[in-house]
Design a protein that fits this description.
With 216 residues, this protein is mostly helical. The chain is 67% helix and 2% strand. It is built from ten helices and two strands.
Length: 216
């Protein structure tokens, strides 16, 4: 049974969320960061001209992403996956890497949308373009398994390398696997051990286990 928010709290929250676009547009004008020609729709949303600042877009994307996550997780409000996805899409369109990554996960796991591995790979790519470590690892998985993209072990290894360079334990571990098994790179147990060690030091349990197998 769905939990009901007492009184009109949920309605007030939704009005506040929808008012963020309005608020950010007004703030942009007040601070001289936007255009006085911004168009405001009757539902409180606004459309900014192409020249509106990167700073404003970043702030707006961040707030939209926060709303999407609250709705998807039911964090303090009644969960609403459909509306949560809508807000994540808006944040992702504003270039918010966290929202792009979470939207990709939703497509991969079928949370709030139908499972669509191709769309998942697209959004992982978008987030990766912004240097999102978890998205880079996830995109590496896509290429390693051929999910949503054509299987390409060399590309997977390159992505795991990028993630490892960002000191992502999952990237370090998977790069180690690539070296241990010769997937997308020349087999090199020395490099595999190096990557497993780094991942293990960062708390990756599977990497620690694989190190144990090397030392046996």
């Amino acid at each position: 049974m769905n939990e009901t928010i007492p009184g009109s709290k949920r309605l007030q929250l939704k009005e506040t969320w929808r008012g963020w676009d309005d608020y950010m547009g007004v703030e942009a004008v007040r601070k001289g960061r936007g255009s006085r020609n911004m168009s405001f729709a009757s539902n409180g949303s606004w459309s900014a001209p192409p020249e509106y600042s990167r700073v404003l877009r970043k702030e707006l994307g961040q707030k939209r992403g926060e709303v999407g996550r609250m709705l998807l997780r039911g964090d303090g409000v009644q969960a609403d996956s459909e509306e949560g996805i809508l807000w994540l899409r808006r944040a992702a369109a504003d270039g918010n890497a966290d929202a792009q990554y979470e939207l990709a996960k939703c497509h991969e796991e079928g949370k709030g949308v139908d499972v669509d591995l191709h769309s998942a790979a697209i959004w992982y790519q978008e987030a990766s373009n912004h240097g999102h470590g978890k998205a880079i690892c996830a995109l590496g998985y896509c290429y390693a398994k051929g999910e949503g993209v054509e299987q390409d072990q060399e590309m997977a290894a390159k992505l795991f390398l990028r993630a490892a360079q960002l000191k992502m334990p999952e990237g370090q571990y998977n790069l180690g696997v690539c070296y241990a098994r010769g997937r997308g790179v020349k087999k090199d147990m020395g490099r595999a051990e190096e990557m497993y060690t780094k991942a293990s030091m960062n708390g990756h349990k599977a990497a620690t286990s694989n190190l144990g197998l090397i030392y046996e």
